C-alpha cells in the first residue's frame, strides 16, 4: 500500500513538471508571459473578438440605417436646380416677313422702313438665344397608400430580426468556445492519466528487467513492458499535439496567444440537472428562433399592405420658386401645386401580387408550426441527453473505483506470483480506458448542460 501511494505521489510531481514544461514549449516562453483563463474569460474574449459576431453587429447597424432611410420618407423633399444655355441661333425668331396676311405684311414693312429706325424697331424679333433658369422646389407626400407607414414598420422588424440573428450567433459562439475549452481540459485530464500509467510502467520495467537479469523470468515479459511504454509515449505525443491544435482553435476564437494560454477550470463542480428543468413548450416560446418565425409572418402581412398601397391613390403637395433670364432680364415667380395620382392599369397585377403574399404568409405559418414542433422535440431530446450524461458520470465514477481496486489487487497478486504480467498490463490499460471514459462523461455533461440552458433561454 505504501508503495502504491509513493508511486502516485511521484507520478503527480512528474505530471506537474511535464505540464509546466509543455506550457513553456520549444519557444522558451517565460513564466511571466503565461496567462490563466477560465471558461468565462474565454467566452467573454470570444464575444468581443469573434469575426462573425462583429459582422453580425454590423448587420444590426445596417438594419438601423435602413430604418432611418425609411423614416426620411415622412419628411418633405427639397431640390434645387440650375440651368443655363447659349444657342448658336435664337430658339425663337419671328419677323414681318413671317406674317401670312399679305396686306398687313405690306403695311408693316412700309411703316418699319419709314419709322422703324426712329423707334429702334427691326423687322425681325429673336428670343431665347441665351439665358439661365434656377428653381427650388419642395414636395410633401400627404398620402401614399400607407406605403410609408408600413415601410417603417417593416424596417423596425428588420432591426429586431438583425438583433435576434446576432443573439443566435452569440449563443453559437459561446457553445463552440466552451466546447473547445472543455475538449482541451479533457485531453489534459487524459494526459495526466497517461503520466500515471507511464510512471507505473517505469517502475514495472525496472522490476521486470531485474527479474530478467536474474534469470527469474523470460525476456518476453520485458518485451511486453517495452511495447506498452512505447504505446504510452506515442499516445502522449498525440495528446500534446491534440492540445496544441485545440489551443490554436481557441486562440483563433478568442484572439489569445495559444502558446501562453493556461486553462484553469476543471471537470468538477457540475450541478445536478434537476435545477435547470423547464417545460419544452415554454422553452420554445422563449427562443430567439421562435420570434424570428413570428417576424417572418408579420413581414409578409406588411409586404401585402405595401403591395396594396401601390394600387391606391397618392397625393402630394408642394411649391417652387423660379428665377430666369430668358427675356434679357431677371424674372421671379412662385408656384404652388398639388399632385393626385390614381393608378388604373395596375389593379390586376396588384391583385395577383397580393395573392402571392397570402401564399407566402401561409407558408411562413406552416414553417412556424413545423419548426416549433421540431424545437420542442429538440428541447426534450436535450433534456434526456442531459439526464443520461449525468447518470453516466455516476456509473463511470463507480467503474473508476472498481478499476483502481482491480489494479491494486492484480498488482498484489503479481508481486506474490499469483498473476501474470499480461494480466497486470491489462488491468493498467483497463484503468486508463475507464478513467478516459469518466473524463468524456464529465465533458459531455458540461456541453449538454450548456446546450439545454441555451435552449431554455438561460
Short recap of the structure:
The chain is built from ten helices and eight strands. By secondary structure, the chain is an alpha+beta fold. It has a four-stranded antiparallel beta sheet with strand order 2-5-7-8, with no helix packed on it.
Low-pLDDT residue spans: 1-32
How much of the sequence is in beta strands? 5-15%
Strand order of the largest sheet: 2-5-7-8
Broad CATH class of the largest domain: Mainly Alpha
Rough outline: elongated
Describe what you observe in this structure.
This protein is α+β, with helices and mostly antiparallel strands and 458 residues long. A hairpin with a 6-residue loop joins strand 7 (314-324) and strand 8 (331-341). It has helices spanning 2-24, 39-49, 51-71, 102-119, 147-213, 219-254, 280-286, 288-309, 347-415, 421-455; strands spanning 35-37, 77-86, 92-95, 124-127, 130-143, 261-263, 314-324, 331-341.
List keywords for this structure.
elongated; single chain; disordered N terminus; Outer membrane efflux proteins (OEP); 458 residues; 4-stranded antiparallel β-sheet; alpha+beta; two-stranded parallel sheet
Reconstruct the topology from this structure.
Blueprint: H1 2-24, E1 35-37, H2 39-49, H3 51-71, E2 77-86, E3 92-95, H4 102-119, E4 124-127, E5 130-143, H5 147-213, H6 219-254, E6 261-263, H7 280-286, H8 288-309, E7 314-324, E8 331-341, H9 347-415, H10 421-455
Parallel strand pairs: 1-6
Antiparallel strand pairs: 2-5, 3-4, 5-7, 7-8
Amino acid at each position: 500500500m505504501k508503495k502504491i501511494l509513493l508511486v502516485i505521489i511521484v507520478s503527480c510531481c512528474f505530471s506537474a513538471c511535464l505540464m509546466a514544461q509543455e506550457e513553456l514549449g520549444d519557444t522558451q516562453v517565460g513564466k511571466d508571459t503565461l496567462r490563466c483563463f477560465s471558461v468565462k474569460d474565454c467566452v467573454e474574449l470570444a464575444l468581443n473578438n469573434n469575426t462573425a459576431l462583429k459582422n453580425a453587429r454590423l448587420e444590426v447597424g445596417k438594419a438601423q440605417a435602413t430604418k432611418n432611410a425609411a423614416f426620411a420618407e415622412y419628411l418633405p423633399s427639397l431640390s434645387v436646380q440650375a440651368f443655363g444655355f447659349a444657342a448658336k441661333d435664337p430658339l425663337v425668331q419671328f419677323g414681318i416677313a413671317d406674317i401670312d396676311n399679305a396686306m398687313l405684311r405690306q403695311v408693316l414693312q412700309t411703316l418699319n422702313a419709314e419709322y422703324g429706325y426712329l423707334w429702334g424697331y427691326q423687322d425681325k424679333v429673336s428670343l431665347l438665344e441665351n439665358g439661365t433658369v434656377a428653381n427650388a422646389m419642395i414636395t410633401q407626400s400627404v398620402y401614399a397608400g400607407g406605403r410609408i407607414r408600413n415601410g417603417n414598420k417593416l424596417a423596425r422588424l428588420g432591426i429586431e430580426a438583425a438583433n435576434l440573428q446576432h443573439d443566435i450567433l452569440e449563443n453559437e459562439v459561446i457553445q463552440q468556445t466552451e466546447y473547445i475549452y472543455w475538449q482541451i481540459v479533457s485531453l489534459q485530464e487524459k494526459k495526466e492519466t497517461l503520466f500515471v500509467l507511464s510512471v507505473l510502467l517505469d517502475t514495472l520495467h525496472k522490476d521486470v528487467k531485474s527479474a530478467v537479469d536474474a534469470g527469474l523470468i523470460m525476456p518476453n515479459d520485458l518485451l511486453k513492458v517495452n511495447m506498452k511504454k512505447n504505446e504510452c509515449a506515442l499516445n502522449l505525443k498525440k495528446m500534446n499535439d491534440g492540445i496544441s491544435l485545440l489551443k490554436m482553435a481557441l486562440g483563433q476564437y478568442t484572439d489569445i496567444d495559444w502558446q501562453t494560454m493556461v486553462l484553469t477550470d476543471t471537470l468538477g463542480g457540475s450541478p445536478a440537472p434537476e435545477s435547470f428543468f423547464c417545460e419544452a413548450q415554454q422553452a420554445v416560446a422563449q427562443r430567439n428562433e421562435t420570434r424570428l418565425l413570428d417576424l417572418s409572418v408579420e413581414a409578409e402581412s406588411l409586404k401585402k399592405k405595401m403591395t396594396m398601397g401601390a394600387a391606391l391613390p397618392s397625393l402630394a403637395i408642394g411649391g417652387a420658386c423660379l428665377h430666369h433670364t430668358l427675356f434679357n432680364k431677371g424674372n421671379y415667380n412662385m408656384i404652388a401645386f398639388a399632385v393626385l395620382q390614381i393608378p388604373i392599369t395596375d389593379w390586376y397585377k396588384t391583385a395577383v401580387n397580393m395573392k402571392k403574399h397570402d401564399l407566402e404568409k401561409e407558408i411562413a405559418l406552416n414553417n412556424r408550426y413545423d419548426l416549433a414542433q421540431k424545437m420542442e422535440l429538440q428541447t426534450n431530446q436535450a433534456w434526456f441527453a442531459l439526464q443520461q450524461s449525468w447518470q453516466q458520470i455516476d456509473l463511470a465514477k463507480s467503474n473508476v473505483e472498481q478499476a483502481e481496486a482491480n489494479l491494486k489487487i492484480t498488482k498484489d497478486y503479481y508481486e506474490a506470483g499469483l498473476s501474470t504480467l499480461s494480466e497486470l498490463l491489462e488491468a493498467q490499460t483497463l484503468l486508463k480506458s475507464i478513467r478516459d471514459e469518466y473524463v468524456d462523461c464529465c465533458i459531455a455533461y458540461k456541453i449538454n448542460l450548456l446546450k439545454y440552458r441555451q435552449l431554455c433561454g438561460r
